Write a sequence for this structure.
């Protein structure tokens, strides 16, 4: 709100739209960060392509046509066919569904669990020492190896891949949240709330959590990008989504025997995979600049 | 200094105990009974019970943890279910390929990443800077195995300059050894190089705006001298830190790279163990790799003293 002289000369209160300067700043930032726009547009295209996979002149991703096996890209099969005569273009478009689902689910679940854990650990000192040792310990195990090991003991399914990818990410989120809580809990507003008799759960939810939204949003995009990559690694190594599901990692895993004969089986899903991960990373970098995280 | 090194070494013990227990616990808490999975689809109840007894899975959980820890302390990582060989022996056999691959990849990525980061920071905002940042983000988004296949397709299949896959130990001579490692090391170095270039640029940007850098340029010192001798020296701490932290990334990538190029390393050992549900091997590799990671980061902490005389332990 701003106090301005009214028409009659007396002081009148003028209600100003919610922080127009913030909106303008965001718009300027967007103009200054073309990569954020590029990333967002590319990601939107991929999400739309995946959501409406059946309408983009695709066929049945599982249909085998042995007569047309290992055909190079042509007007009929845009990305060529694999050793069962399945259409690589169709399989690649459908593969986006798996990757995006895994990426979104892993980042959402690990953010929720990691944040919950971080809030509690940051606020209750007694838990802190023990829990942080456990967090450090798990973080010392390389994420891909841990996910691989976890997949070894679970049956291959999309749900289990998500579990195997979430577990190594939780400690990373927990660390960030805990660090913020430790600095925020000394903040004047928290002290004030305390003095007014606000309880700990309410302080965590109403005073500390909102300050964490921006950094967590940025971290969430990075988790999403790495989850999509690692899902492809797991499938490629034969420890990811079940082979019948046309995920990008699976398509490429089946193509590896035909690198010399039919390189297109690996080439096209890989280009889509790299483009998707790149788009998400660009969104993450852009958000970090715009939201001014760190 | 020596006392500090010892103190820090001792401090890694609790971390390693936590790693050992977490590795064990995570593999046992996950849904699914290892004995059932090891036994396979056609096993009878008796088979499963026998496997469970052999692995000690029929004992209380805490007893199992205790037995595992006692073994590890004695340097015994257990015995592979598949080959019957001690896990420690298997790891020793496979270490050479993985260590060579990661060292080469590290050399390539630091050798390229640091200069790229320096130039990008020096020419901030120019097209060179943009290009380096694009390379960095793209490198970070690249699927390692896909890049490996593209390199194989171009350099090994189309041009036939380098072998498609396989490994020659160093004992067979340096040139065959190197020829087989060039493509895998290049593949693996890309993600890591992106990370190093980004960190170098960020860290250099902080230093380049300082007064003493302006003074050095004003004195008419050649830019290369100022950038490397004056700026890089002070910007190196975060870069060295990221080299240590990024080691985990390198090991993860090595697992995938070894699979693409059929290198007989720890990654292949792990993947084979996973296909065969050979979980003593999985546990052993996880523990050793994590231990190396913790040690590398300890060494890097100690390096700070050398790099920055203001830091004393």
């Amino acid at each position: 709100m701003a106090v301005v002289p009214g028409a009659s000369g007396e002081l009148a209160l003028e209600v100003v739209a919610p922080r127009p300067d913030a909106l303008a700043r965001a718009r300027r930032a967007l103009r200054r960060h073309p990569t954020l726009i590029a990333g967002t547009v590319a990601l939107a295209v991929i999400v739309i392509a995946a959501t409406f996979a059946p309408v983009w002149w695709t066929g049945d991703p599982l249909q085998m046509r042995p007569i047309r096996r290992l055909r190079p890209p042509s007007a009929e099969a845009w990305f060529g066919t694999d050793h069962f005569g399945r259409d690589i273009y169709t399989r690649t478009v459908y593969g986006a569904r798996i990757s995006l689902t895994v990426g979104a689910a892993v980042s959402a679940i690990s953010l929720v669990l990691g944040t919950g854990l971080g809030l509690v650990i940051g606020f209750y000192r007694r838990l802190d020492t023990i829990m942080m040792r456990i967090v450090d310990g798990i973080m010392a195990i390389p994420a891909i190896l841990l996910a691989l090991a976890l997949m070894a003991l679970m049956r291959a399914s999309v749900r289990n891949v998500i579990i195997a990818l979430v577990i190594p990410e939780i400690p990373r989120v927990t660390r960030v949240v805990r660090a913020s809580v430790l600095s925020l809990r000394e903040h004047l507003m928290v002290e004030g709330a305390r003095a007014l008799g606000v309880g700990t759960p309410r302080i965590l939810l109403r005073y500390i959590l909102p300050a964490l939204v921006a950094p967590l949003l940025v971290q969430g995009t990075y988790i999403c990008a790495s989850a999509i990559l690692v899902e492809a690694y797991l499938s490629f190594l034969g420890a990811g989504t079940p082979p019948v599901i046309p995920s990008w990692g699976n398509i490429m895993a089946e193509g590896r025997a035909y690198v010399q004969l039919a390189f297109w089986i690996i080439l096209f899903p890989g280009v889509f995979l790299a483009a998707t991960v790149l788009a998400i990373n660009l969104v993450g970098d852009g958000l970090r600049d715009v939201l001014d995280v760190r | 200094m020596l006392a500090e090194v010892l103190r820090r070494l001792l401090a890694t013990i609790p971390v390693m105990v936590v790693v050992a227990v977490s590795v064990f616990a995570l593999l046992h808490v996950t849904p699914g009974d290892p004995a059932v999975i090891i036994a396979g689809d056609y096993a009878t109840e008796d088979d499963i019970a026998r496997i469970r007894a052999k692995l000690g899975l029929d004992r209380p959980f805490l007893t199992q943890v205790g037995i595992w820890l006692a073994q590890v302390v004695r340097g015994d990582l257990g015995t592979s279910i598949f080959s019957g060989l001690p896990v420690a022996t298997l790891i020793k056999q496979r270490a050479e390929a993985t260590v060579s691959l990661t060292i080469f990849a590290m050399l390539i990525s630091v050798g390229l990443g640091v200069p790229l980061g320096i130039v990008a920071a020096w020419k901030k905002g120019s097209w060179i800077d943009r290009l380096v940042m694009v390379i960095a983000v793209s490198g970070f988004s690249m699927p390692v195995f896909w890049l490996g296949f593209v390199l194989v397709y171009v350099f090994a299949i189309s041009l036939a300059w380098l072998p498609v896959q396989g490994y020659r130990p160093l004992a067979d001579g340096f040139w065959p050894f190197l020829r087989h490692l060039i493509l895998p090391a290049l593949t693996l170095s890309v993600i890591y190089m992106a990370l190093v270039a980004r960190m170098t640029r960020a860290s250099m940007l902080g230093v380049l705006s300082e007064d003493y850098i302006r003074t050095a340029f004003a004195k008419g010192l050649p830019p290369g001298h100022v950038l490397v001798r004056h700026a890089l020296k002070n910007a190196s701490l975060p870069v060295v830190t990221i080299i240590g932290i990024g080691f985990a990334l390198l090991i993860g990538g090595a697992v995938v790279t070894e699979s693409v190029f059929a290198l007989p390393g720890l990654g292949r050992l792990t993947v084979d163990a996973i296909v065969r549900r050979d979980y003593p091997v999985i546990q052993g590799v996880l523990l050793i790799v994590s231990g190396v990671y913790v040690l590398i980061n300890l060494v890097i902490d100690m390096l700070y003293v050398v790099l920055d005389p203001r830091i004393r332990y």
